[in-house]
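Postdoc handover notes: sequence design on the structure in folder B. Input C-alpha cells:
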C-alpha cells in the first residue's frame, strides 16, 4: 500500500500534467472560429509616439476597408469588428498588445505592425498561438521567416534595396553613394545592407557608411565625414522623424546631392520636418496618389472624404491588408485559424490599391514598387519597377 506521501506525490504529478495540457491547449488556438454574428480582428499600431503618423494612417486605411466590407454584408454574413491597441512605437508594448488581443479579446486574426522591429516582437506570439498575422508594411525579411502564420502584403527589403539601386545607377546615373543608417532599427539596417550589395554588384561604390540611433537630433559629425568623400547621393533608409532633420543639416553643410531612401520616409510630417531641404530627393514606396486607375482613385476619394487629406502609402497598405484578410476569410471553408491561414497563403493576383498582390511560398507579397521624387514639397511619381 502506498503511503499518504506517495499518494500525495502521485496526485500532484497528475494535477500538474493536467495543468500543462490546458496551458498548451491555450497556446494553440485552432478553434472553428467565432460562433456569434461578429468576427473579432485585432490591430496593433503606433497610434502615439515618435512614429504616430505610421500607426494612424494605417489604422485609418484599415477602418475604411472594414467599413466597406461591413456595408457589403461582411464576411460569411458576419460583421467585422476591429480591436485596436496602441503600442506607442515600442516593441515590448507591441508584444503585450498582441498577447492581450489573442488571449483576452479572442481575435481570430491580427493586422500589424507597420515597423519591422515591432512586427518581429509580435510575430513569435501570433505563431505560438497559431493566429494569422498580416503586417501591412514591415519589409524586413525576418518577419515572415518566424512561421507559417505570419504574412505581409508589402514588398521586402531585398526588392526595395534593388529598386533604389537600379534607380540610382540606371536613372540617376550615379556611381558613388554614401550611407547613413539607423543602427537601432532592423528596417534601416536591413535595407542599407541590401542596397549596398545591389549597388556594388551593379558597379557602384559605397564611399562611406555612417550610423546614427533613433532619437538623435545632431547628425553633423557623420555628414561632415560624408561630405569629405564627395558622394553623388546619400542613401538614408530611416524613418521620417530623423530623415527630415538629416536633410536640413545636409543642406546647412552645403551638401547638395540627392538623398535617397525607402518607404519609411512616407509621411506628411516629412515635409513639415525637412521643409525645402527634402526637394530633389527620392524614395521607394508602395503606391502613388497620381495613379489614375479607378480603384486607386476611388480609395483616394473615399479616404479624403473621411479624413480631409490624401492618403499616404501606409494608409493604402492598411487598406489592402484588411481587404486581403477579408478576401481570404471569405474563401476559407470556415473561420478556423488553420483555414484562414491556408486561404491567405493561397492569395493570388489580388487587385489592391498598392498593386496586384500574390502571396509567395515564403508568405511575402510579390508586387511592384514605385519611386517618388520630392519637388516643391510634393511627392511626385517617377517610375515603377517590377520584380
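Designed sequence:
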Amino acid at each position: 500500500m502506498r503511503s499518504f506521501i506517495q499518494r500525495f506525490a502521485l496526485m500532484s504529478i497528475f494535477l500538474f500534467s493536467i495543468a500543462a495540457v490546458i496551458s498548451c491547449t491555450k497556446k494553440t488556438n485552432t478553434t472553428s472560429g467565432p460562433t456569434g454574428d461578429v468576427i473579432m480582428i485585432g490591430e496593433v499600431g503606433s497610434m502615439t509616439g515618435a512614429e504616430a503618423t505610421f500607426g494612424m494612417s494605417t489604422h485609418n486605411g484599415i477602418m475604411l476597408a472594414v467599413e466597406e466590407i461591413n456595408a457589403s454584408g461582411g464576411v460569411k454574413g458576419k460583421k467585422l469588428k476591429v480591436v485596436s491597441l496602441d503600442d506607442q512605437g515600442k516593441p515590448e508594448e507591441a508584444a503585450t498588445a498582441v498577447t492581450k488581443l489573442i488571449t483576452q479579446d479572442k481575435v481570430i486574426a491580427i493586422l500589424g505592425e507597420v515597423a519591422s522591429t515591432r512586427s518581429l516582437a509580435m510575430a513569435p506570439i501570433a505563431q505560438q498561438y497559431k493566429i494569422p498575422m498580416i503586417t501591412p508594411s514591415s519589409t524586413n525579411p525576418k518577419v515572415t521567416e518566424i512561421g507559417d502564420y505570419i504574412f505581409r502584403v508589402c514588398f521586402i527589403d531585398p526588392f526595395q534595396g534593388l529598386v533604389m539601386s537600379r534607380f540610382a545607377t540606371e536613372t540617376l546615373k550615379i556611381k558613388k553613394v554614401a550611407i547613413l543608417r539607423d543602427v537601432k532599427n532592423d528596417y534601416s539596417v536591413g535595407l542599407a545592407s541590401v542596397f549596398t550589395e545591389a549597388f556594388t554588384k551593379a558597379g557602384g561604390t559605397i564611399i562611406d557608411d555612417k550610423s546614427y540611433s533613433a532619437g538623435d537630433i545632431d547628425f553633423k559629425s557623420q555628414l561632415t565625414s560624408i561630405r569629405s568623400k564627395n558622394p553623388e547621393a546619400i542613401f538614408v533608409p530611416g524613418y521620417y522623424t530623423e530623415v527630415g532633420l538629416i536633410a536640413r543639416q545636409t543642406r546647412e553643410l552645403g551638401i547638395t546631392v540627392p538623398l535617397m531612401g525607402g518607404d519609411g520616409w512616407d509621411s506628411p510630417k516629412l515635409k513639415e520636418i525637412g521643409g525645402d531641404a527634402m526637394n530633389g530627393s527620392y524614395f521607394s514606396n508602395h503606391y502613388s496618389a497620381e495613379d489614375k486607375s479607378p480603384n486607386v482613385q476611388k480609395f483616394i476619394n473615399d479616404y479624403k472624404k473621411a479624413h480631409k487629406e490624401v492618403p499616404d502609402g501606409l494608409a493604402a497598405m492598411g487598406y489592402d491588408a484588411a481587404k486581403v484578410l477579408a478576401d481570404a476569410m471569405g474563401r476559407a471553408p470556415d473561420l478556423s485559424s488553420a483555414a484562414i491561414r491556408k486561404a491567405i497563403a493561397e492569395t493570388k493576383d489580388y487587385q489592391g490599391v498598392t498593386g496586384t498582390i500574390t502571396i509567395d511560398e515564403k508568405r511575402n507579397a510579390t508586387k511592384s514598387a514605385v519611386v517618388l521624387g520630392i519637388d516643391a514639397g510634393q511627392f511626385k511619381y517617377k517610375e515603377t519597377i517590377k520584380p
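Context for whoever picks this up: Confidence is low (pLDDT under 50) at residues 1-31. Don't rerun without checking with the PI first.
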